[in-house]
Amino acid sequence: MSTAALLWRQFRFERRLFWRNPSAAFFNFLLPLVFLLLFASVFADDEDQLEILIPGIAGMSIMATTFTALAFNITYLREQGVLKRVRGTPLPPVSYFGGLLGSSVANAAVQVVLVVVIGHLVYGVDWPREPWSLVAFSALGVITFGALGIAFSHAIPNFDSAPAYVNAIFLPLLFISGVFYSADSLPPVLEAAAQALPLKHVIDGLHGAIVDGTGLADNLTAVAVLAAWAMAGLLLAVRFFRWE
Which of 31, 108, 188, 231 is the most exposed, fewest CB within 10 Å of its CB? Predict the structure, then answer.
């Protein structure tokens, strides 16, 4: 069987594993949608707030389905010896990791589509004005947070401590990056921290694509910051990766 065929079978297997794990399905997939429905219902009559919330939840969804999910998964697979056993099988590593990463990419893509569709059909937010920019920033976000999630898993000592390590990064980023409100109202120190980190730039790019009608050329700062974080994440993920 070819490498591509094995990758596809591994991808299908990862999809079944994901949906058969209620905890993963809720926290990595359903929780952002729950936040969307709760907060958007509160601000249903405030168009400006909705135009902040929809790109914010979309950015949060990308981070949850890539960074959070992969940091948990890689730590678990390493600590339980799954990676070591996979390494000893004839399955090519590219097929295995292609299926694993492909599942996270699929979750992120579906999440962004659902957030945009719900925002339009339920809350009246306009369709994205720059759909290709939406796709581009979603892809940048997936690459960046996927690489950072794998890299960060190397710093987690064991699976029992994974929730504390991951949430120590994930939760503060949500509140300083403009997921639920405009980051422009933050104190200068927190605003500077948000500007240095990737989530705000993913949200800014999605906001431009959905609300402002701006493309990649109008958000070069965000592209540059995300590219830098993606490169750093890829280098660290490859440099410190271990099968056991």
Answer: 188
Give the Cα separation of 59 and 201 in Å (integer).
Answer: 9
* Count of Cβ atoms closer than 10 Å to residue 3 Cβ: 13
- How buried is 125 (Cβ within 10 angstroms: 0-12 exposed, 13-18 middle, 19+ buried)? buried
Which bin fits 81, alpha (ψ -120 to 50), beta or left (φ > 0)? Answer: left
**CA atoms in the 13 A half-sphere facing the CB of 109:** 10
Residue 20 confidence (pLDDT): 85
- Residue 186 in 3-state DSSP? coil
The structure's pTM equals 0.91
pLDDT above 80: residue 27: no
Question: DSSP readout, 142-158?
Answer: HHHHHHHHHHHHTT---
* Cα 37 from Cα 158, distance rounded (Å): 34
How far apart (Å, rounded) are the C-alpha atoms in residues 207 and 181? 12
Rounded to whole angstroms, how far apart are CA atoms 64 and 84? 26
pLDDT score for 184:
76
The amino acid occupying position 97 is F
Region of 213 (left: φ > 0; alpha: ψ -120 to 50; beta: rest) is left
Q: Is 219 helix (H, G, I), strand (E, B) or coil?
A: coil
